[in-house]
Specification:
The chain is α+β, with helices and mostly antiparallel strands. Helix content is 24%, strand content 26%. The strands form 7 sheets. It has an 8-stranded antiparallel beta sheet with strand order 9-10-11-12-20-17-16-14, with no helix packed on it. Strands 21, 22, 23, 24, 25, 26, 27 and 42 form an 8-stranded antiparallel beta sheet that branches. The longest helix has 28 residues. The radius of gyration is 31 Å and the shape is globular. The termini are far apart. Bound molecules: zinc ion (2 copies). The site of one zinc ion has 5 residues, from loops.
């Protein structure tokens, strides 16, 4: 009872935070030794000076302003904020202004309240808002000129939404001027000890503290007013406020010891030092805590956690810190972005170490924020760096790299030319210190000019010197081989060395965590330092506009297939069927029928990358099978529109768009509700064809070739029609913006008038090359008996010819020319120019020719035992496995009920009749839920924990255990709030709290004893 009362009292004091005591006594984020160290480095080391010169310059500039100016330039809460003036662009030049980005309007400090269009240089508003503000926002006779704005926007006749000049200025005045100025003044003081900086920072902080409690973005913003009534925040929106509050908390910390000595400040405010401390403590720090609890400071995963922990450390309130640490680790049952790390690392991260968002640019925010928190948590004596998912946060940029210089452009991330996630230096430093892996050392910059260490920014000046150089070379080979990221749902086929590095990626993962595209089975190709099938990446707008849903996020802009001229219906995960790689052949086979529910009974892609006998020569074979609906579009696109055709006669481009001669660009013509709308575009499921211009269309039943070239880099795409098809060439624009140079979109289109579901097989061979292409001709090979599920291709090249076979029905043997018989999922046979078989590869079956034969049956088996702590599994595998080597780097697919889990074998060891497999450094745990009420009769375990399991993948059949892993069940279903278990074994063992932390948790695993396993067979022949 006593404990309970104490706990309640703690909650209240934390919740209210209005007690008069200010526990904060000194600077909390750095020790006096660290501050000393930074000041010495700044005085003695040129690189240290360079690292913080921007901070010092801004501080010097702002230190020259008078105290009155500093107080006056900070806008009161009554002035609204807007991150954008209007989605229509500029009142004068319209959307042309977006050439300069979404936030291109200038907000010069020298011209208070004036915004300047970067394109046409027009200045808005026409009135002097400063004067109007001085009138208490009352004297409306001051609203003069053609574009007057009283803070709540100017309305253009005939347009529904307003243009928010003043609010835009206000937002960016905070973001570009005020917050950086306060932050930098405070940092400059910490770095130099110069009281002038502290005084100016305190003047500004005290004024911000006057206003902060009344800041309410929900009532004071364009976005909440015009678009989303629930949109919240404080000065700025809730997401960006995380950064604002963190910076302000740091600023308060850094100048804390200067309050006592600042007589001028005390005099001008009429407050003594204690009163000033109380003002900052309650009206800033405690307001941050309050706003975090009210979700007014609430960002992507990790952002508000960092704000809370920073504030708690700065506050020096031990109870608040204790509460914050517990909250960060163990909070559960809240919004998913607020789940404690102990739950989130299991429930909200893919096992490869990325947060549950499709787009690398976004999930990498989670990684950085979680690492930052883990680093901060060390101060509270909590070390999470040993957690397997935390480890992956550092390794995943290596794993996800496609070829030198690229990260796949999945979801809202990157652009047509670039996309790259690299570990920032600070993360590499933490990784190197924590794990000692030489892999991270090359990312640490070399110290210059005899400095103690390299400095990339402010924090580095306070850090110790880098640890010594490793004694061994880093092992980069794991990241040069093909890789299956089975939980994220990405197959990366890699090949080539150094400047010839290339990669083909196929994405089949769950894209529903935010910022995903309708892009399942999309492929991307990277070679010779270029993106050759470039995904468009980040849309023009992150908000309500026809472009993201109608184009960039839509299936139509991707290298995949459209059924019935509609976008994929959902973000559901596809299924992997096969993944195999050797030194010269790589294959991925995946399907995603669930993205066209009730429509597609087959939606499956087999893609292989095969090396030719020259370091920079290779080709890609792509087969896409679709069944269901009335029409199919298979689409690929090239990096620019300069494409030459051979073997097909396209007429002159038609006017209008692919949607029709009279359908204007970007119109949602096939959606009556949205065709003439000005908002509400998300949810559009039509064709997106109005974003494709200059269409050319031709029918052909013969192979044809599209060639693209830029400098010495070429990409040739051989189109091999398997049935009557219409081909389309048209232009598509990055970000749906016709100011950008277009890409050439090429599509194959099939259609049926009949009642039978349409069955299409699309086949292309892509040949990227630098210098002269090696391929002479490409054709489909006849075989018998003819089956739609099998494709055979002959590729003649300078060194002979390849025969490639891809099949969905390997059990059906087929007879090919030249006496080849095959019953395999995939096979490549390479003959030299004399017709002698030189090399072969087969997966899932066998090929034969005369006496010669090559066999690679798929291996099947069951799981005997799972050893999660060592990331091992013991399996029974039927089939003839010659040596341990034979299983290395092979895929292993686990199946139980509806659930599938795709892994790679990194090490295999025979144990009697069984195999012990090491599956890499990956966590097998997919779910961790707090056990609430248990309903034995219904087999339901209630839980407050946010489980994303059922969204990410089908869950029925997953293995479930209690906390001690001593009792096991199978999962029937998992939804928010409840976990339903199969069978009739008692659920009582779930109540045991084996680690004694006061919580009982239930654990959900990717696989368990009894699961069936499948390993695609593979065998190679070399003459
Ligand atoms: Zn303009
Ligand atoms: Zn995309």
């Amino acid at each position: 009872m006593r404990v309970l009362i104490l706990f309640t009292a703690l909650c209240l004091s934390v919740a209210v935070g209005k007690a008069d005591i200010v526990p904060k006594k000194s600077i909390a984020l750095f020790t006096p030794e660290q501050i000393q160290r930074a000041r010495q480095r700044l005085a003695n080391e040129e690189p240290a000076r360079r690292a913080v010169q921007d901070i010092l310059q801004m501080a010097q500039r702002w230190a020259q302003f008078s105290d009155d100016y500093l107080r006056e330039t900070i806008p009161p809460p009554q002035v609204p904020r807007a991150f954008n003036i209007s989605f229509s662009g500029c009142p004068v030049c319209g959307r042309e202004t977006f050439k300069y980005g979404n936030y291109g309007f200038e907000t010069p400090l020298e011209k208070p309240w004036k915004v300047i269009c970067p394109n046409c240089k027009s200045e808005f508003p026409s009135n002097d808002f400063g004067a109007f503000l001085k009138s208490g926002m009352k004297d409306r006779s001051l609203l003069t000129g053609d574009y007057p704005d009283d803070g709540w926007g100017w309305k253009k006749p005939g347009e529904e939404k307003k243009y928010w000049f003043v609010a835009y200025y206000c937002h960016w005045h905070w973001m570009r001027h005020i917050i950086p100025a306060v932050h930098n003044l405070a940092r400059a003081y910490l770095l130099t000890g110069d009281q002038r900086y502290a005084h100016k920072a305190l003047v500004m902080l005290c004024r911000i503290a006057d206003y902060y409690p009344d800041m309410d973005h929900n009532k004071q913003s364009r976005y909440a007013t015009e678009f989303v009534p629930s949109y919240t925040g404080k000065i700025v929106n809730a997401i960006w406020e995380t950064g604002v509050a963190t910076n302000l908390a740091e600023a308060v910390d850094f100048v804390w010891d200067a309050i006592d000595g600042d007589a001028e400040l005390q005099r001008s405010l009429g407050k003594d030092a204690d009163a000033i401390r109380q003002h900052l403590y309650h009206n800033l720090l405690m307001e941050f805590v309050k706003a975090i609890k009210e979700y007014r400071i609430s960002g992507n995963y990790g952002m508000h956690q960092k704000t809370l922990l920073t504030t708690a450390i700065v506050s020096q309130d031990p109870e608040l810190l204790k509460w914050s640490v517990d909250y960060l680790l163990n909070n559960t049952g809240d919004r998913y972005t607020h789940e404690g790390l102990q739950f989130a690392l299991a429930n909200l991260f893919f096992r490869e170490g990325m947060g549950h968002e499709s787009a690398p640019g976004y999930h990498f925010i989670w990684n950085q924020e979680v690492v930052r928190i883990c680093d901060y948590l060390l101060r509270a004596g909590v070390n999470l760096f040993g957690h397997p998912v935390v480890r992956r946060l550092f390794y995943y940029p290596f794993e996800l790299s496609a070829a030198k210089g690229f990260t796949p452009t999945i979801g809202d991330s990157g652009s047509v030319e670039v996309s790259r996630i690299d570990l920032p230096t600070w993360m590499a430093e933490i990784a190197y210190c924590q794990y000692g892996d030489p892999l991270f050392y090359p990312l640490l910059p070399k110290p210059q000019d005899n400095a103690q260490r390299a400095y990339t920014g402010f924090f580095d000046l306070f850090q110790p010197a880098f640890p010594p150089e490793p004694s061994t070379q880093p092992d980069t080979s794991p990241y040069e081989r093909s890789r299956l990221l089975g939980d994220y749902g990405l197959a990366i086929l890699r090949g080539g060395q150094d400047e010839n590095q290339r990669a083909l990626t196929l994405y089949y993962g769950w894209a529903g965590g935010g910022h995903g595209h309708y892009d399942r089975l999309n492929i991307e190709l990277f070679a010779f330092g270029r993106k050759l099938l470039p995904d468009l990446g980040y849309p023009q707008f992150a908000a309500d506009d026809p472009e993201p849903p109608g184009w960039t996020q839509h299936t139509v802009s991707h290298c995949t297939a459209l059924v019935d001229a509609q976008r994929q219906a959902n973000f559901a995960r596809g299924r992997l069927h096969r993944f195999a790689h050797t030194s010269w052949v790589r294959l991925v086979d995946a399907s995603a029928e669930s993205v066209y529910p009730g429509k597609a009974s087959l939606y499956r892609r087999q893609t292989a990358m095969v090396d030719l006998p020259k370091a920079d020569a290779f080709y890609v074979v792509d087969v896409f099978h679709v069944q269901g609906g009335k029409q199919h579009h298979y689409s690929l696109h090239l990096p620019t529109a300069d494409v030459v055709y051979r073997g097909i006669a396209f007429p002159e481009p038609r006017r209008g768009t692919l949607a029709g001669e009279d359908v204007p660009f970007g119109k949602m013509y096939d959606d009556p509700q949205r065709a003439n709308a000005t908002s509400g575009f998300h949810g559009y499921t039509g064709s997106g064809f109005a974003f494709l211009t200059d269409p050319q269309e031709a029918k052909s039943d013969r192979p044809w070739l599209a060639s693209w070239r830029q400098g010495d880099i070429r990409l040739r795409i051989h189109w091999l029609p398997t049935q009557p098809m219409r081909f389309i060439a048209c232009n598509g624009y990055p970000k749906g913006n016709r100011a950008n140079p277009p890409l050439k979109y090429l599509m194959a289109h099939t259609q049926t008038e009949g009642t039978e579901p349409l069955r299409s097989t699309f086949v292309t061979v892509m040949e990227p090359s630098r210098s002269t292409p090696l391929i002479r001709s490409v054709s489909l090979l006849p075989f018998s008996p003819a089956v739609a599920d099998t494709v055979a291709i002959e590729i003649s090249h300078q060194h002979g010819r390849d025969v490639v076979l891809l099949s969905l029905t390997p059990e059906k043997r087929v007879q090919l020319p030249d006496g080849i018989t095959a019953g395999a999922a995939f096979a490549v046979l390479r003959f030299d120019s004399e017709g002698v078989l030189q090399r072969a590869f087969v997966s899932g079956g066998e090929v034969a020719r005369g006496e010669w034969q090559l066999q690679a049956r798929d291996l099947q088996g069951t799981v005997e035992k799972v050893l999660p702590d060592t990331h091992e599994v013991v399996v029974n595998l039927q089939g003839n496995i010659r040596a341990e080597e034979a299983l290395r780097h092979r895929a292993i697919l686990f199946r139980a009920g509806e659930h599938r889990a795709d892994y790679e074998i990194f090490r295999a060891q025979r144990e009697g009749k069984r195999w012990r497999l090491w599956l890499g450094d990956y966590e097998f745990l997919r779910g961790r839920a707090l056990v609430g009420e248990i309903d034995e009769a219904q087999r339901v375990v209630h839980t407050p924990t946010v489980l994303a399991l059922d969204a990410v993948a089908p869950v029925q059949g997953m293995a479930v255990s209690n906390e001690a892993r001593s009792a096991w069940w199978r999962l029937a279903s998992a939804r928010r709030g409840e976990v339903v278990l199969d069978g009739d074994a008692s659920l009582a063992p779930l109540r045991a709290d084996s680690d004694g932390d006061g919580r009982s948790v239930l654990l959900i695993w990717d696989f368990g004893a009894g699961d069936s396993v499948f390993t695609p067979g593979q065998a190679e022949y070399r003459r």
